[in-house]
């Protein structure tokens, strides 16, 4: 379990990392790292090569981006003792035989914001893994309305990314997640970035916000279409796009007048129902102006194949029948296309 120290605060670690060049820009430009470690370890060898240099930044990359152990002698040579003690106290690092082994990774986002996630080598098939910022996170973060807001709600906060981003333009933020491990990671991420105006609460969808209204609501919910619900962070808990439909229909009740709800998600086009008509049914009685940014779409075969390959990157479980099960699920539900994008609703 991660632990947030009070003295010294976690911002001491963040400042050390950023000053050492542990940002997305420098990790790419100086070490050539463009991908973190896959959970099935397929790309371990090139990452270990890129982080083998006898200097501080390659060592930080190996420990906290790759999430791979490093020899005690090498770690003590480059990392000051007070930073090591802070990492040990926070349970970011543990001593394992002759190495310092990372229990979590630290992922840079928007260059210098830092977020903790489960180390890929430790993910296995845990349904409650926390993966950190994803491509969907970047999409919704780039689309956020960032004018000054009184209150904001981050639904499905995960490692706390959108909540931390929103804290810069919101007086008060609530981040919720049904996964209690995610709440633990999100609190750690907020402390690491020195953010104090966020409250993280465990609960399903809007339940923790009952009776409240917000100027901004953001959601990067579990929207993967799958007959098997293997992972809390990704797999839609309802049939097809039912969960994102539920959020779109419920969100206006939690918005202030002029409040904005934004959600990155997927939705399906089924036989006899164009996707535009499907989305209109989600928002027709919402009392909101609606704008949809439409991203790439996939036919069922492409969708099932892409999710199959992605599963190998994100977790190390058995993928047997994974593509066939997903493809059959889409076909049985008469899905002709899976669309993706960002839905924006202003009350």
Question: What topology does this entry show?
Answer:
Layout (H helix, E strand, L loop, with lengths): L10 H9 L4 H8 L12 H7 L5 H11 L3 E2 H7 L2 H9 L3 E4 L2 E4 L1 E6 L3 E6 L16 H9 L5 E7 L5 H7 L2 E8 L2 H13 L5 E5 L11 E6 L22 H9 L4 E16 L4 H9 L5 E6 L5 H15 L7 H11 L2 E12 L1
Strand order of the largest sheet: 8-7-6-9-10-12-11
Strand content: 15-25%
Name the average pLDDT.
95
Structural class: alpha/beta
Counted beta strands:
12
Characterize the largest beta sheet: strand count, sense, and whether it forms a barrel. Answer: 7 strands, mixed
> What is the tally of helical segments?
13
CA-atom Rg in angstroms: 21 Å
Give the termini separation: 40 Å
Q: Globular, elongated, flat, extended or rod-shaped: what is the shape? A: globular
**How much helical structure, as a percent, in the residues?**
25-40%
* Element-level helix/strand string: HHHHEHHEEEEHEHEHEEHEHEHHE
List unreliable stretches of 5+ residues.
Answer: none
Give a structural overview.
- This protein is α/β, with parallel strands linked by helices.
- The chain is built from 13 helices and twelve strands.
- It has helices at residues 11-19, 24-31, 44-50, 56-66, 72-78, 81-89, 135-143, 161-167, 180-192, 242-250, 275-283, 300-314, 322-332, and strands at 70-71, 93-96, 99-102, 104-109, 113-118, 149-155, 170-177, 198-202, 214-219, 255-270, 289-294, 335-346.
- It starts with 10 loop residues before the first helix and ends with a strand.
- The model has no long low-confidence stretch (mean pLDDT 95).
């Amino acid at each position: 379990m991660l632990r947030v120290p009070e003295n010294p605060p976690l911002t001491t670690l963040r400042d050390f990392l950023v000053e050492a060049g542990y940002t997305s820009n420098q990790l790419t430009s100086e070490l050539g790292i463009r991908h973190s470690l896959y959970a099935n370890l397929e790309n371990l060898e090139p990452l270990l090569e890129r982080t083998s240099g006898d200097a501080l930044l390659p060592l930080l990359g190996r420990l906290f981006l790759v999430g791979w152990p490093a020899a005690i002698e090498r770690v003590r040579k480059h990392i000051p003792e007070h930073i090591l003690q802070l990492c040990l106290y926070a349970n970011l690092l543990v001593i394992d035989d002759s190495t310092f082994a990372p229990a979590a990774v630290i992922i840079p986002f928007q260059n210098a914001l830092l977020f903790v996630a489960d180390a890929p080598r430790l993910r296995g098939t845990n349904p409650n893994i926390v993966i950190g910022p994803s491509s969907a996170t970047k999409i919704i973060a780039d689309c956020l309305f960032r004018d000054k807001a009184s209150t904001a709600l981050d639904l499905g906060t995960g490692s706390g990314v959108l909540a931390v981003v929103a804290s810069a333009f919101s007086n008060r933020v609530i981040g919720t997640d049904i996964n209690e491990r995610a709440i633990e990671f999100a609190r750690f991420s907020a402390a690491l970035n020195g953010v104090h105006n966020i409250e993280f609460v465990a609960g399903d969808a809007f339940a923790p916000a009952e009776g409240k209204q917000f100027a901004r609501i953001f959601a990067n919910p579990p929207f993967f279409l799958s007959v098997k619900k293997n992972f809390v962070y990704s797999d839609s808990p309802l049939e097809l796009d039912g969960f994102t439909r539920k959020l779109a229909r419920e969100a206006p009740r939690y918005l202030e007048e002029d409040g904005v709800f934004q959600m990155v998600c997927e939705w399906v086009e089924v036989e006899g129902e164009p996707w535009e008509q499907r989305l209109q049914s989600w928002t027709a009685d919402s009392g909101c102006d609606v704008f949809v940014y439409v991203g790439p779409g996939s036919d069922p075969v492409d969708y099932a194949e892409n999710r199959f390959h992605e599963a190998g990157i994100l977790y190390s479980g058995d993928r047997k029948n994974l593509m066939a099960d997903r493809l059959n699920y889409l076909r049985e539900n008469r899905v002709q296309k899976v669309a993706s994008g960002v839905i924006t609703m202003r009350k």
